[in-house]
Known about the structure:
Elements: H1 21-24, H2 26-34, H3 48-56, E1 58-60, E2 63-65, H4 73-84, E3 88-93, H5 99-111, E4 117-119, E5 131-133, H6 135-141, E6 148-150, H7 152-159, E7 162-166, H8 173-185, E8 187-190, E9 195-198, E10 204-210, H9 221-224, E11 227-231, H10 238-256, H11 265-280, H12 299-316, H13 323-334, H14 338-351, H15 358-371
Amino acid sequence: MATKKTTTKQDANGSTLRLTAEELFAEEIDALIKAETHPVPAGWKMSPRSVLTYICGGKCGTLDITPKYIGHERLVEIAISTLVTDRALLLIGEPGTAKSWLSEHLTAAVNGDSTKVVQGTAGTTEEQIRYTWNYAMLIASGPSEDALIKSPIFRALESGSVARFEEITRCASEVQDAMISLLSEKRISVPELATEVAAKKGFSIIATANTRDRGVNDMSAALKRRFNIIVLPTPKAIETEIDIVRKRVSELASNLDLRAEIPSDEAVEQVVTIFRELRSGQTLDGKAKVKAPSGVLSTAEAISLLANSMALAGNFGTGVVSESDIAAGLQGAVVKDEEKDHLVWEEYLKNVMKKRGAAWRKLYAACSEQNG
């Protein structure tokens, strides 16, 4: 049964809430494909070198290629090289380390289609990674090619493309184990049709896993051996994290039409500083210990906080992000457990932020008022 890719078209008034990576950066992808001078692997749209340029940024003729992932370029090279081999790729890391973001952009660059996705949850079944049936057709005429409903992984396998498996450790062990034979044999058997579909060249899987959820349904050693595992770290330097946050907030502001000015560089630096200190359990200068809250204060959470602050400023303020707008976001980001986190946040305000001088005074006052 032929399958068609479902496309989302951005109409003239930009009504689509979230475009795929290949739609957002279609100009860059098309330019890299047209300018290609290196060998292109089977099933790929561009060479590994061009994929690296697309992910990490660079030039394509006169066109600037924006970096999609700011971090360790060598890790990206290893990830791309893995997809050229017959091994699957597993990206693991703390929440907010851009695992899903990198996964989506890798598949967009390699295949021009990042939509073959299985979202791992406690309710994910084996059928969702293999196939199921149109039961009305099955009852009416029995098993047939037309009645077969193929999973995203099935469609990737038969077309020689890359599928994504998000949060694989959220799935039950028996669902994970169904991947072992698929990754080993590179084929899916359909006993009801007495047939077997073998993977075409170019087939691979990019899975992601959250290190905070490793205890939920940790992967078996057998399954781990089928993956080349890459750990995506949190940004080491505060300057890198600030660049990531500033870039993504600007993109979100444009896509969502937030009708507010981008937060100042000082505001971005203050939010990132607070997150890094609470995340690491000490101040940036290492002179004071701080208690860590129960929530995950990731880079992605900082981006979300600042975007929400812009929404507050645009809809209920002057259009300029104020300390009060940021304080409201900080309160929600830090205080996830009212009993424990409220005290942690209060202690941080009094022992760290209050002592930082004039540059932090307005934010401290707004946070203290919000926390009261």
